[in-house]
Amino acid sequence: MVRVTCLGAAGGVTGSNHLVETSDGRKILVDCGLFQGGKQMEARNWESWGFNPADIDLVIVTHAHIDHIGRIPKLIKDGYKGKIIASPPTIDLAEILLLDSAHIQEMNAEWQTRKNKRRGSKDIQPLYTTPDAERSLSHFQPQNRDEMLELNMGVKIRLRNAGHILGSAILEMWIEDDGQEMKIVFSGDIGQPEQLIIKDPYEVFAADFLFMESTYGNRLHKSHEESRQELLEAIKYSYENGEKVVIPAFAVERTQEILYILGEFHRAGVLPDMPIYLDSPLAIKATEIFRKHKKHYDEEAMAIVQKGFDPLDLPNLKFTPSTAESIAINERPGPAIVMAGNGMCTAGRIKHHLKHNLWRPGSSLVIVGFQAQGTTGRRIVEGASEVKIFRETVAVKAKVHTIGGFSAHADQEDLLRWVGHFAESKPKVFPIHGEPEACKVLAEKIQEKYGLETHVPRWRESILLTPKAVDYELPEQEEDMEPDYYAEMNNVIVSMEKNIRELRRTLNERLAKEKDGDHGLERLQFIQEELESILKSG
Fold first, then answer.
1. Which of 58, 169, 232, 476 could pair with 159 in a Cys bridge, judged by C-beta atoms 3.0 to 4.6 Å apart?
2. What CA–CA distance (Å, rounded) separates 155 from 153?
3. Burial 176-213 (b: 16+ CB within 10 A, else e)
């Protein structure tokens, strides 16, 4: 029997972490990511692992996004001493991302400690430190994709191109169990076909069990061409209004794709003459890593290189690694394109650019990546009229564009096409790495289209695999993630305040026209009574 325990990216998108235990006691960890989103989700980063890190025999990483590698320094800190298998580009990206994550952990702990001291509370320790991250880097061992690796524990693995970000991999794993071999596939994150810069996802045709991402399992993306045109329209709109285009971009892949597209616009002569700022030290370093690994480019990107162009460069592009250079961007009047991290608008330099530009009519906010529940980006996408940034209420007056076509994740149609290659081998499919509704919808679509048996795992659920049967063990105390009620209530209150101001401005005019003034007054009195009731009960 092989046991797979879903310790992250089950019942949610982030914190990818799956423990594979063989019948002879070997333990392999697939990914070790950071939980991201609201306070409750992020609190999971501090909880017990569900295993002893010192007992783990091997860690395999599918790709370098922080929700897949972000707890590795903590794993090392807590006792893991083995190797971490990953592709060479993943290792290069992991170095900059883990050091950056450690810096964020230290800064957050320092900020919380200062806050605690003012009220007489204890100091806060970071989840891990920069030295912890540096130590973790020595554990990485490069493994080229498409090469079989024998692990001397009755296990063989092979990494295949996932087409998600540079170096991303699908994991094929063969496990000898009671004289029979089982094949388990972990998809990692699957990219869109014909994605920019990198090659398309590899088509795997056989498995007994498939653990498959479902981030966009209930949604379809716009086409690449529609997305390009919408980005160009956003740029032209703000250029004509003398304002800025703000793009919250993930440092790895999304930033490079936007640079690639802006380069296309420039070579086609349609890009307005305006400064383009890459305002992210991390994204600047990641871009250099992309330039280092050109052999992983697809044919279209290599064709640009062979014509003598750098697909990630253009004349008006300015790197702003220092804080002073970042501050200067919003001190300069006039139009500009500003790309900054982080991609979900929860931290980093993007918050400063939102504070300076989100309230400006004529500016544009271009959302190009997934926004997790509880994040500022998600609230804006869902239509919040005002959001809190640095404890200040900022109105959303910018034109908001949500452009899903640039996503590094496959959409529902792409996922169904990819899983269709397994139809003949008929694996049991476990949709993971998605919010509950996305997993559920994708599971139903897979059953309907291919007749494959599916099961959506819950957080900390164990799945017991044998060649002929599957069984399940739920955790003793299963926790359902509560909504971030504070954030949602705050958004409602902000909208109510806006509506009250609007009502005050139009009250005289409306009362002069309406014949049922008494009815309107009764409705307002009812609302007032409800508000008083909420305040008393709180």
1. 169
2. 5
3. ebeeeebbbbbbbbbbbeebbbbeebbebeebbbbbbb
Name the residue among 457, 456, 455, 446 with its Cα closest to residue 423.
Answer: 446
Q: What is the pLDDT of residue 125?
A: 94
Q: Which positions ≥6 away from 319 have C-beta within 8 Å?
A: 278, 284
DSSP result, 364-391: EEEE-S---TTSHHHHHHTT-SEEEETT
In which element (H, E) is residue 46 found? none
Please, where are the H alpha helices in 244-293? 254-268, 281-292
Please say whether the beta carbons of 376 and 389 come within 8 A. Answer: yes
| pTM score | 0.83
Q: Which residue is associated with the tokens 């019942």?
A: 11
Amino acid at site 71:
R
Separation CA 3–CA 471 (nearest Å): 9
- Cite the beta strand spans of 433-529 per DSSP E: 462-465, 470-473
pLDDT band at residue 369 using 50, 70 and 90 as cut-offs = confident
Task: Note the pLDDT of residue 154.
Answer: 87
Displacement of CA 341 from its chain's centroid (Å) = 12
- Extract the tokens encoding 30: 């697939």
How far apart are alpha carbons 113 and 395 in whole angstroms?
30
Mean pLDDT of the 5-9 span: 97
CB atoms within 10 A of CB 482: 8
E strand or H helix at 499, and its extent? helix 485-513
Task: Count CB atoms within 10 A of the CB of residue 290.
Answer: 26
Strands 140-142 and 470-473: unpaired
The pLDDT assigned to 486 comes to 53
For β-strands 244-248 and 364-367, DSSP reports them as parallel
Tens of pLDDT, residue by residue over 63-85, are 999 999 999 999 999 999 999 99
Q: What would the 3-class secondary structure string for 409-429 be?
A: CCEHHHHHHHHHHHCCCCCEE
The CA angle 508-509-514, to the nearest 5 degrees, is 100
Cα-only R_g, the chain: 25
Residue located via tokens 């509370």: 121
How sure is the predictor about 500, in pLDDT bands with cuts at 50, 70 and 90? confident
Is pLDDT at 292 greater than 80 in this prediction? yes
How crowded is the C-beta side of 517, counted as CA atoms within 13 Å?
A: 9
Q: Which amino acid is at 276?
A: I
Dihedral of CA 237/241/245/246: which sign? negative
Which structure tokens are listed for 429? 């499919």
User: What is the spatial distance between Cα 390 and Cα 397, in angstroms, rounded to a whole number?
Assistant: 18
What SS3 string covers 182-241?
A: EEEEECCCCCCCCCCCECCCCCCCCCCEEEEECCECCCCCCCHHHHHHHHHHHHHHHHHC
Residue with tokens 């002929």, as numbered in its chain: 468
Whole-number pLDDT of residue 371: 82
Closest CA to 404 of 197, 160, 195: 195
State the pLDDT at residue 342: 83
pLDDT, residue 170, reads 98
Quick one: how far is CA 502 from the chain centroid?
A: 37
